[in-house]
Amino acid sequence: MKFQVTLEQIESGQARLLIRPQETQEILWPADCLPSGSEEGDILTIEIAKDEAQTREAQERVKGLLNKLLEKGRK
Fold first, then answer.
1. What is the pTM of this model?
2. Which of 5, 44, 68, 70 has most Cβ atoms within 10 angstroms of its Cβ?
């Protein structure tokens, strides 16, 4: 999913981004995670994608930790 935002304001290390086109919803974003040279008023594109492989790995890791705790509790 891709969408555009307007960089409304940068203050105290936080950027306020307004989701386009309505610009009625905002996102607070770490200013140091903005593209280099970004300034107030710039239009930025954000892409969000689900990482299936990383999700499965995280789920397996948590499952393994839970199993270890359960086994430890049975001893």
1. 0.75
2. 5
